[in-house]
Amino acid sequence: MEDEIYLSTDQVSSGNFLDTILNLDLTFLQIWLVRVGENPFATMWYAFVYGGWVILLFLFYKAVTTLWLVRVQSIAAKKKKFILLAIDVPRLSEQTVKAVENMFAHMAGAHSPVGSWSEKWLEGKTQDPISFEIISIEGHVQYLIRCLDKLRDLVEASVYAQYPEAEITQVEDYAQAVPSEYPDDTYECFGTEMTNVTNDVYPLKSYLDFEHGLTGEYKDPLAVMLEAFSRLGPGEQAWYQIIYIPIDQKEYKKKAQAEILNLKGEKPKVKKNIVEQALDLPIQGMGVAGDVLFGADGASEKKKEEKPMSKMMTLTPGERGTIEAIERKMGKIQGQCKIRFLYIAKKEVFSKAKILQSFVGSIKQFNTNDLQALKPEGKKVGVNGTLIWFKNKRNNRRKEKLVSAYRSRSGWMGLEPFHLGTDELASLWHLPVVLNVKAPQLKKTEAKKVEPPINLPFA
User: Which of 166, 269, 366, 430 could form a disulfide with 204 if both were Cys (CB 3.0 to 4.6 A apart)?
Assistant: First the structure.
């Protein structure tokens, strides 16, 4: 038969054993290609019978388990109650952005790991996000936090601990008052998500980079966005949202350490599993037997490998600074985050240029060319004017998805979340530093609350 191949004694002993094996592989490949050309269905069946069914079984298993997980999580989500809290701070408050960083560190206590198999696969337990928002409704600017009802005490305690005179009020969800389907007869919509440019272990600039080194004066990078928000007129709305998902810190720490070792030119230590250790035992045994039979001073002594010089000795000051920046970020509490922006207005006043450039410019103040940067994403999620095929239809679908993701404060719709530390979060979302922000319609409490005098007479 044409597919029966034999090795002769001459072929094996001639010293061309490797060439013979390579020729055999080529022969088998030729036979396989001939069979595929003659009967592809028979070839597919042959592949399925001899191992292909394992791949199909694995794909079927993944599909079923994913659908089941989505189902149980959706059922669990319908039972959850979320609330929206409006935060108003006193006009004369002199708190710094550091206070908001402390708030985020406190809210990391919302992390609730999925402990058991039944919690994940039967109860549909997930880590629910907290949404931090700044909105402008016709020029009236408001700070908002959306969370589970059971987390209200945690959120209020975090705010009151830093802003004792703040007012926190539960309000209705403003996002439900705009159309969810586009095109719409009355409203037009533009939206995008901000995404990280490089590996998220690299940090953004933080609020500390905007403080004067000598005077300590703080130039608030969000002042530009707040000013633009306050300039919106009747029929216009702008929404800025940061989704914050508390996480376990171990995985992020491993990721950051791996990047640091890569920058140093070092290889991370890989711990062998039980199977790999078992496979190494015969090789080690042969080495020991060889030493016993031929002696330690055999014909071919093993040369000690010289350790290569550490790359740390040749790093430039900039490269050293990069490693230090990653280490500083690793020292902060991390969370998985998404950043969304929506501008919705009546068609007769719709002008995205009025607000978009100010928003993107405000966020870009935190970017650096050597570390991390954020940019609006238009290839997959955001409304994109450069689309060619079915441009209007595709952009309308994107608008609907963005509005839906924003309304639900979804942590999984849209782009993959990326890591931000508490200092980066506080820089991107913080209550107004009143000495710097002059937005006239930014809502604040008008007076400072004080305790009544202890000698107040009773009626």
Answer: 366
Mean pLDDT of 416-428: 94
**Of 377, 405, 458, 2, residue with least CA distance to 193:** 377
What is d(CA 326, CA 346) in angstroms, rounded to the nearest whole number? 44
**pLDDT per position as a tens digit, 209-263:** 988 777 778 888 999 999 999 999 999 999 999 999 999 999 999 999 999 998 8
| pLDDT band with cut points at 50, 70 and 90 for residue 115 | confident
If we measure between CA atoms, which residue out of 344, 365, 84, 86 comes closest to residue 192?
A: 344
Backbone angles phi, psi at 211, to 5 degrees: -100, 135
User: What is the Cα–Cα distance from 404 to 413, expressed in whole angstroms?
Assistant: 9
Please compute the mean of the pLDDT values over residues 285-306 and round it to a whole number.
Answer: 53
Question: Measuring CA to CA, which residue among 418, 396, 414 is closest to residue 405?
Answer: 414
How far apart (Å, rounded) are the C-alpha atoms in residues 6 and 20? Answer: 11
Q: Considering only CA atoms, which of 379, 37, 63, 322 is closest in space to residue 195?
A: 379
Residue with token string 């609020």:
207
> What CA–CA distance (Å, rounded) separates 428 from 204?
10
Mean residue pLDDT of the chain comes to: 80
Site of tokens 């595709």:
394
Residue 369 near residue 445, CB atoms below 8 Å? no
Tokens 């608030």 found at: 220
The two structure tokens encoding residue 402: 């963005």
> Tokens in use for 128?
């629910």
Task: In whole angstroms, give the CA distance from residue 90 to residue 95.
Answer: 10
| Cα torsion through 149, 335, 159, 106, rounded to 10 | 100
Query: pTM of the predicted model, to two decimals?
Result: 0.76
Q: Residue 330 CA to chain centroid, in angstroms?
A: 15
The region, left, alpha or beta by phi > 0 then psi within -120 to 50, assigned to residue 64 is alpha
Per-residue pLDDT, 129: 92
DSSP 140: E
Would you say 425 and 334 are in contact if contact means Cβ atoms under 8 Å apart? no
Tell me how far CA of residue 165 lies from CA of 68, 152, 330, 450, in angstroms: 47, 17, 33, 9
